[in-house]
From TrEMBL:
Keyword Translocase recorded: no
Organism lineage string: Eukaryota, Metazoa, Ecdysozoa, Arthropoda, Hexapoda
Span of the signal peptide: none
Record-given protein name: C2H2-type domain-containing protein
Top-level taxon of origin: Eukaryota
Keyword Coiled coil part of the UniProt annotation: yes
Coiled coil segments of this chain: 467-494
Originating organism: Acyrthosiphon pisum (Pea aphid)
Length: 857
């Protein structure tokens, strides 16, 4: 280790990473495995990843966002974060060992930071000090030495005390916090009430680097090498075996496998050297090199080779090994890229995505592909197979008629491999071997040449699913179906609703063809709804219902029977259901809102009362497995279908707010009537799994807020009086009142604008529609930005911050439509609207806008 002090200053890597090497001008020799590499940053980093088995720790679960203040890098993905930490551009910035950097978790904005102390303290949450865990990780990183007997540091998360000599007194003092977690990479034992800080430390740069250096072993690599040598020196090939412990996973290495491994070592090293010699090494190059050593390790212990799938994005020069991570990457960076080309190579076991056409010949000529072919030959020769397997190396061991005269699909018990391109598609027959060998590329070329561009080709359920840009391409392919099947011998199936464009109903098309017809229909609807609201008969029926409820004598009176919903704000007809909140024992302000047990008890008791009077209440049913437990029934005297709830009076204030907006100006109610009472039900959008009428009303009001037609709730709160102040369930329900002027001449423009606004899929998927502010707010920064809005009352701000987990799951990590409730700020009114349903909604809006543009005056 003495030679490591004479390190060439031109190697810009942290000193800790250079400790295992003896470096001179010609080579960097690893003192753990005695293998040398070129004294260059990339080669040293690569060697460490191979020498220690695994580059970066897997299975890290976290809710953090990540911000590298040194590189000005921000991401929500733990996989992207890990890749960033080990890019040379980042890691070379940590060379100066005298300047201390820290990893810091900010629980206010749920972000993990890495950078200098001053930078961390200046971020928008402005913490007053660096956490103790940050100092612990910095201390461990600074003192770590590459030696066999690294001293364990003991850290008590309960009192933020850490020491290398934990006393019995300290253990006894905190014996109640007996949750102990050990990190063998960092050599830290965590003591605490929970393992939260242990889990949090796993995303730090320091932990990642020490994992990179030590490979997550409970013993260092040098000790493992000794064990390997002991195993090799044993005379008996069949019995003696040594066990190497890697985080409780035992690997049994036989002397026969070890001997075979050593004899192939030089060839593997040559392949690595060939790849390393490339002047411009891509992420694909690094991926192939690192996999070589991992495959060999598998062959030491097993005759089975399972090639892991990779996704190489040439545009971003990144390889991802997880399908979910790739989907996230695609959504974030390439959602609008229609020219991406895709090929799949079974030899390299990777999907290759690029912005330029990559042909099969070009891929075959790459150094990486050639190296993988050679590597497969080495591993195949090493596998212990029976004589039958060897003689049938390129044949199916149980051939069928379709398999004869084909060397394409190779399926033995030991390996899944093809000479050129590995095809999982069992529906492609074997008559045309040239097509089968390269089916992915050929299929790509056939489709693009004859039918134009398509978004992607995806392997689904033993077949290739092709997603076209428009319906006309599908129609042409349908016409050519028989010709293609006969020529290329594969089967084509059309999945009708895989992502078909939803079509407007005939009723809507007819209504939107003529402006005068539309106006007449809406005028008729509004008159009917107004008649229902003011009708003496309707009031009498409502009173009959209230009298029946009061007859139960359940600690309530007629003043505490609150109707809410469309019957209050004037969008109901004679056949519309009625919603009632029943206030029992002064529960209006929400004292039982968080006690579902009491609500269920009220529901069950009220159900019994209803069932006791079958001549008055019919079809009685209690629904308790929902967000707000209710009793639903048919009231015989009034002929109402009724839903009764007991949670709080928040629903009545939601109703009052909508009622106020609809009364601001007749045009507001007119527009709501068009969308909620006509367009949406005509196209099947009123459904619990899609939109409620309540959510659709807020979609209309939110659009009007963005157009400055109606004021946002925050603005209404600014003009409120002391008498307007109200808090329910801890949410500030205060709003003042005003009136506005909207000319009827603006109605066509506003209706068209509504559909054009909601036809924008990307804006809806990327943003939260905040009905409180009347603005779009980016999903990935919603909690942080909204909680700091100056217009929020202190009550709202405090309450909102208590629901970070709910906001994170329902808002920031929701890929569908997110429409914020105006009072209950942590609730997403469209939480069930995801992916296809949102696309259908946007498609309908787009079609509607086109109709309106061509509408007759």
């Amino acid at each position: 280790m003495a030679e490591t002090m004479n390190i060439d200053v031109s190697i810009k890597l942290p000193p800790l990473l250079l400790q295992p090497f003896s470096i001179n001008n010609n080579e960097a020799k690893c003192t753990k495995c005695n293998i040398s590499c070129a004294p260059e940053e990339k080669n040293i980093l690569y060697h460490l990843s191979v020498c220690n088995g695994t580059l970066i720790e897997e299975n890290i679960q976290t809710q953090f966002k990540f911000n590298c203040l040194k590189c000005n890098y921000l991401t929500d993905s733990i996989d992207q974060w890990k890749c960033h930490l080990f890019k040379l551009d980042h890691i070379s910035k940590n060379v100066d060992f005298d300047i201390i950097t820290f990893s810091y978790d900010c629980m206010l904005c749920n972000t993990h930071f890495y950078g200098f102390r001053e930078s961390i303290l200046k971020h928008h949450c402005q913490p007053k000090f660096i956490s103790k865990l940050s100092y612990v990780m910095s201390t461990v990183y600074g003192k770590h030495k590459c030696q066999d007997n690294q001293t364990m540091l003991h850290y008590c998360t309960y009192c933020s005390f850490y020491t290398y000599n934990l006393t019995e007194l300290h253990k006894e003092k905190h014996s109640e916090v007996a949750c102990i977690s050990v990190c063998h990479s960092c050599h830290i034992t965590f003591y605490g009430q929970t393992n939260e800080q242990y889990l949090n430390h796993r995303v730090t740069y320091e932990h990642m680097l020490l994992w990179y250096l030590n490979g997550a072993r409970s013993k260092t690599k040098k000790i493992n090498s000794t064990n390997l040598n002991k195993s090799y020196d044993v005379d008996d090939d069949d019995n003696p075996r040594e066990t190497i412990c890697q985080d409780n996973n035992e690997i049994i290495i036989s002397t026969r496998n070890l001997t075979s491994y050593i004899t192939k070592k030089n060839i593997i090293t040559e392949l690595i050297d060939q790849l390393s010699a490339q002047p411009m090494k891509s992420a694909f190059n690094d991926y192939i090199r690192k996999n070589f050593d991992l495959y060999i390790r598998e062959l030491q212990t097993s005759n089975n080779i399972e090639l892991s799938m990779g996704f190489y994005c040439e545009i971003c020069d990144i390889v991802l090994c997880n399908h979910d991570a790739w989907n996230e990457h695609d959504k974030e960076f390439h959602i609008n890229d229609n020219d991406i080309k895709v090929l799949f190579c079974g030899v390299c076991c990777i999907y290759h995505l690029s912005a330029q056409t990559v042909t099969i010949k070009q891929h075959f000529m790459t150094v990486e592909h050639i190296a993988m072919k050679v590597f497969h030959q080495i591993t195949l020769n090493q596998i212990k197979t029976s004589t039958d397997h060897i003689n049938n190396f390129n044949k199916n061991p149980n051939p069928t008629n379709d398999d004869k005269d084909s060397d394409f699909n190779v399926e033995t018990k030991n390996i899944k491999y093809s000479n050129e391109y590995y095809v999982k598609n069992k529906t492609i027959k074997n008559d045309d071997s040239n097509f089968k060998k390269n089916n992915y590329i050929v299929l790509n070329e056939i489709i693009q040449e004859r039918y134009g561009k398509f978004k992607l080709v995806e392997y689904v359920n033993n077949s290739f699913a092709i997603l076209f840009e428009n319906i006309s391409q599908v129609k042409r392919l349908r016409e050519d179906k028989k010709e293609l099947e006969n020529q290329y011998d594969f089967t084509i199936q059309f999945v009708e609703n895989y992502h078909s464009e939803k079509v407007l109903s005939l009723e809507t098309k007819k209504l939107f063809e003529d402006w005068s017809l539309l106006c007449a229909k809406i005028l008729s609807d509004l008159e009917l709804m107004n008649l229902s609201r003011t009708s003496i008969e309707t009031r009498s029926r409502v009173q009959q219902l209230c009298d029946s409820i009061c007859s139960f004598q359940i600690n309530t009176d007629s003043k505490k029977i609150h109707t809410f919903g469309s019957r209050v704000y004037g969008l109901a007809t004679n056949t519309t259901n009625i919603d009632i909140y029943l206030e029992i024992d002064d529960t209006f302000d929400g004292i039982i809102a968080n006690n579902e047990k009491i609500q269920v008890e009220y529901v069950q008791q009220f159900t019994k009362y209803c069932l006791s009077k079958p001549e008055v209440f019919q079809n009685v049913k209690s629904i308790c497995n929902c967000r707000m437990p209710i009793v639903t029934f048919y009231h015989v005297p009034s002929k109402f279908i009724c839903d009764v709830s007991f949670k709080s009076g928040l629903v009545t204030y939601n109703t009052e707010l909508i009622k106020f907006y609809l009364l601001m100006n007749p045009t507001v109610k007119w527009l709501v009537c068009v969308i909620v009472k006509n367009w949406a039900p005509q196209n099947g959008l009123i459904d619990r799994q899609l939109f409620t009428s309540y959510a659709l009303i807020w979609l209309v009001l939110f659009y009007l807020m963005t157009e400055k037609v109606v004021p946002s709730l925050i603005k209404l709160r600014h003009i409120s009086t002391e008498d307007d102040h109200k808090v329910i369930e801890g949410w500030d329900c205060t709003f003042g009142k005003c009136f506005i002027y909207i000319s009827e001449e603006k109605r066509p423009k506003l209706l068209l604008g509504f559909f054009q606004y909601y036809a924008n899929k990307r804006a809806l998927k990327d943003n939260v529609l905040s009905t409180c502010t009347g603005q779009l707010i980016k999903k990935h920064e919603f909690f942080e930005r909204f909680s700091q809005l100056p217009g929020l009352s202190q009550i709202q701000r405090t309450k909102f911050k208590n629901f970070k987990a709910e906001v994170d799951s329902s808002f920031e990590k929701n890929y569908g439509l997110v429409l914020q409730d105006p009072f209950e700020l942590s609730f997403n009114l469209t939480r069930n609207l995801h992916d296809k349903a949102l696309n259908d909604f946007c498609d309908l809006c787009m079609q509607s806008s086109r109709l309106l543009l061509n509408m007759k005056d």
